[in-house]
Amino acid sequence: MKFTHSINLVASFGLAFGLSSCGASGEKPGYEFAPQMYHSIAYEPLSQIRNEEEGSWLSTREDEKGEFYNSNPNNPHGMTMREPVANTVPRSNNGTLPYRLKAFELEKAALIENPVEFNDQVLAEGQQLYIQYCSTCHGLGGEGDGKAGEVIGGVANLKGGAYINLPEGHIFHVITAGKGRMLPHGSQISQERRWKIVHYVKQEIQKQ
Q1: In whole angstroms, what is the distance from residue 150 CA to residue 182 CA?
Q2: pTM for this structure?
């Protein structure tokens, strides 16, 4: 009887210890399944990590190299991406320069002309982009009556007042950097697409 009681006591302690060891606390996060899914390793395009064994403890790569090894032996210093040519400025596919005006530089922005040539295809693309990014607040007709606009209030009516006469560069700048209750969309919409939205706003919504 005592022997059976001792076995049950040991089994209970073992079960309690096993369950407690599964918990995560402090510096002991517990067992991690597929850690690479939630401890992702940032990709560094100018990385110079040339040690093929670096991160081998974590790696599941097919080439059997370490997880942190990502250099390119064909590039100078083993970098994974070549550096830009000295004294050059990157341009987009249509040849436009990066947009560098600050949020407060509205007067300078108003002087910029739309670099995207207007045609029917651009207008159609601008319409789709406007519906995707703008209509939620400004409404399909640009009157500030979108579903989100009705909730937050204060959304600009693009067909009314001084908004009709705004230069294209001003509208582009507001889309890019935001103004008032409108948040910036420069990180969400490419530069060329923003200009297409401007074409649609001026040509179809404002009929300018």
Answers
A1: 14
A2: 0.62
